[in-house]
Amino acid sequence: MQPNQRLDALREAIQPHRQALLDHPLYRAIDQVAALRAFMEHHVFAVWDFMSLLKRLQTDLTSSAAPWLPPANPQAARFVNEIVLGEETDERPGGAAGAGYASHYDLYLTAMNACRADTAAVERLLELVRGGAPVREALHQLRDEGAIGQSVVAFVGATFDLVDHGSTHEVASAFTFGREDLLPDVFRQIVAGLNRDEGGLDDFEYYLSRHIELDEDHHGPMAERLVTSLCGDSDEHWREATQTAVATLQARLALWDAIASQIAAPQPV
């Protein structure tokens, strides 16, 4: 089977899970700013842990330590470094010359503050991690304190299971089909449902527009080529990549279910 055929087979295997996310009732529920706040207060953890998937790929595919060694796959290294540039130091609203740069995580926090969403839980997580706490330990502490619910612990925990133990092609598959390939269509659903009458959404819409532009036009197709390159002719690698993509989409679906329940009947998720 040719690489393109293998990629098509992977896409076919994940399509029902992908479609379940695109058809999720959560998007229809995000029609007022209060609902958007609830969404952002949980989705921000996925915005943060996305970067650890990316950094794992950067560690595997580029030479990021001294002494430097040339990358084994320059095309893969270029792709990863390009994504890091955009995700870690993107242009702020207004353009680079006037506004400077920020990570997409920081852009998201700015958007949360603009619509008065609570950033305390995720900032506390980063404070604990910065102080040396393992991610899972920090998550459990926040859950025990009532700051986050089990759905966030499960989602971020699944991400870090991959970061810590997954093979490079598995991490690339999760990154590609659970994040880069999926998010533009998901974000379109959110933008379409927003009621802008209450204001405070300009920063959020900027964040969404940047993701749609970068992921769909540039990063998404490059990420698929990366998965194809890493899996090569290995039946085992393609099987593992498919299983990982499905598991990643299922984890996202579980998070979406929990957030939808939170919006319908507010309680920790």
Automatic annotation (TrEMBL):
InterPro entries: DUF3050 (IPR024423), Haem_Oase-like_multi-hlx (IPR016084)
Protein's name in the database: DUF3050 domain-containing protein
Species annotation: Posidoniimonas polymericola
